[in-house]
Amino acid sequence: MNLHPLLTTTPGRLALCGDWHGNLQWAAGRVQSAATHDVGAIVHAGDFGVWGDAAGVRFLDALSKLCVRNRIPLFITDGNHEDFDFLYSFPVERGLRR
Fold this sequence. Notes:
By secondary structure, this protein is an alpha/beta fold. It has helices at residues 24-36, 54-70, 84-87; strands at residues 14-17, 41-45, 74-77, 92-93, 96-97. The strands form 2 sheets. A 3-stranded parallel β-sheet has the order 1-2-3, with helices on one face. Strands 4-5 form a two-stranded antiparallel sheet.
């Protein structure tokens, strides 16, 4: 199986999440829970909270660091509460925005 470069192994468990709406405390709790339960990747199914303002950038930076620290890749699908101009400014690599 050819894995996406963001995955180093085939994840044994997936966490399915949604509707974080940029709430770092809530999102961080889910990442910590995923790490505790040996989850290999998180799939977020909409209304993640991608905003291009200062608070949104802090949310993305802090959450990214937490995911890297716990070695849990996070994949999101956009919802109806996202800043699409900001979201679409991220480069696409092998079919995924980074």
